[in-house]
Amino acid sequence: MRKVPTNNQHLFYQPKDVWVGDVMPFGKDGTFYLYHQRDTRDPAPLAEGQPFGWSLATTQDFVTYQEHGTAIPHGGEDDQDQFIYAGTVYEAKGEVRAFYTGFNRNYLREGKTSQVLMQAKACSDDYATWKKTGVAVELTPQPGYDGRNWRDPFVIWDDDRKEYLLVLGTRKGDDPSKTLQTGRLVHFTSKDLEHWQFKGDFWAPGLYTMFEMPDIFKIGDWWYLVYSEYSDENKIVYRMSRDLYGPWEKPRDDAFDGRAYYAGRTAFDGSRRILSGWVPTRENDDDRANWLWGGSFMPHEVYQRPNGTLGVRPPQSIKDAFECPDAVPDIELRGDHERTECVITENAGEIFCFEADVTFRDACDFSIRAYKNLETDESYEYRFDLDANRLSFDKSPCYKWFRVMDKGLWRPVWLESGRSYHLQLIVDDNILVLYLDGTALTTRVCEKFGHSLAVTVTNGELKLSNIALAKGLREQEK
Questions:
Q1: In which residue ranges of the chain is pLDDT below 50?
Q2: Which of 267, 333, 350, 408 could be a cystine partner for 25, CB 3.0 to 4.6 Å?
Q3: Whole-prediction pTM
Q4: What is the CATH number of the domain that holds 460?
Q5: Do the beta carbons of residue 302 and residue 275 sit within 8 Å?
């Protein structure tokens, strides 16, 4: 029997009876066009399940979505695009076009080139109807590279050189076990989008087995290269440079989120740059199990800090979607050699937004506990360990150890005593995302012990001010 999703989300996007895979966002005039894969997991995720194409949903606020159905359908069993893997949607010469990865699992088994770039053009004003234009012959896997891993193209106009740049992820040579860290980005250039020249490696740092979902954009004087990798920390990370062709510098914190947020690309609608990734689910809905490919779409708004590094925050429209918040008195806690806790509310519900300005004294640890049971003291916990400069997620108590497979569910933080930081926690059923001054940590949980929300401090002082707790969503206008 095919398993169906059990989530009851009201905010983050997941169509009925499917899991959202990679999202190819396109922004224009305040609207985001979210081309995405819908995986039935019948009987398993991705290439072990039913073939998929690209579906389309549009949104202006990331709260309400208009469904447009299948935009680019997958091919048949013998077609190159039996599955339509990730690609890019872009506007050029008055047209909206797409390059996508055509994948055929039968070709893979037969030793043929299984991943090839293909093209399509939008043929309706709402960009919901597309016409396939076939294999991009000049963009097929090049000699010396891995034809089983040749995917996720991204196109950008290089205004300095007056040409189009296409980058994609691949590997070097023949390495079926994928143990060699030969993952790299390669690039092509074109003056007209029809004739392409292969230019070799774009960036090959020797860090990963594979690059996925590359994205390039510019803010001010800085270029940013965004990509996903699954052999180091399985995250969406970025590099920055003053030039489109590098050198690519690593910022101190090079990730946008933790392990439970993947395959994100950005799009700009004229005012907002939104990162579109997905939150995975757990095998057998068990917190101790590994993550599965695909899940629910979730947006982060990307912004540039004064030093050029990137931070993320929830889109304002998501915050505005919640009911009017309850005012909560300031909270001051001190725990000299023990943990001190304050219950903020005994019933936060299963969809809420909590915000506060946080100030601490001394080298304390503090935490936010969600879905807490007041009788058993069980909860999920976001914990700030200031000695380790670390924000992590786990169960509390973590007994019998371990209760969460938490590898990758952490972020680096560098916080100063006496300084104020803005904390936001958004909970939508089984998805939790915490923001602190541009740093995000998302996860999905499989239990709900209770509905209380609490804050703790150990070995120091903690003050929460300007506290707001908004429970539930406003009724949306039809």
A1: 478
A2: 267
A3: 0.97
A4: 2.60.120.560
A5: yes
- Predicted pLDDT of residue 87: 98
Distance CA 40, CA 405 (A): 25
Q: Domain with 169 in it: what CATH number?
A: 2.115.10.20
Per-residue pLDDT tens over the stretch 172-225: 988 888 899 999 999 999 999 999 999 999 999 999 999 999 999 999 999 999
pLDDT of residue 73: 98
Identify any residues that bridge with 360 across adjacent strands, giving them in sequence order.
462
Give the pLDDT confidence score for residue 478 in this predicted structure. 43
pLDDT tens-place string over residues 36-95: 999 999 999 999 999 999 999 999 999 999 999 999 999 999 999 999 999 999 999 899
CA distance 189 to 108: 28
Token duo for residue 392:
């992590």
What six digits make up the tokens of 35? Answer: 């081309």
Among 268, 288, 161, 171, which residue's Cα sits nearest to residue 218? 268
Q: Are 117 and 81 in contact (CB under 8 A)?
A: no
442 in a structural domain? yes
Residue 217 in any domain: the answer is: yes
The residue out of 296, 319, 342 marking a domain boundary is 319
Query: Residue 399: its pLDDT value, please?
Result: 86
Q: Which domain holds residue 444?
A: 324-471
One-letter amino acid at 420 equals S
For residue 167, the model assigns a pLDDT of: 99
Question: How far is it, in rounded angstroms, from Cα 318 to Cα 250?
Answer: 30
Q: How many CB atoms lie within 10 A of CB 194?
A: 9
Specify the 3-state DSSP secondary structure of 47.
helix
How many domains, the chain?
Answer: 2
- Are 370 and 230 in the same domain? no
Q: Alpha-carbon distance 193 to 183, whole Å? A: 26
For 174-183, how does the pLDDT look when each residue is reduced to its tens digit (9 = 90+)? 888 889 999 9
Angstrom distances, CA of residue 63 to CA of 27, 88, 197, 276, 431? 16, 24, 42, 14, 15
* Cα(172)–Cα(252) distance, integer angstroms: 28
147 with 286, same domain? Answer: yes
Residue listed under structure tokens 């304050």 = 342
Structural domain contains residue 45: yes
Q: By 3-state DSSP, what share of the chain in percent is helix, strand and coil, each rounded to 5? A: 5, 55, 40
Residues 294 and 196 in one domain: yes
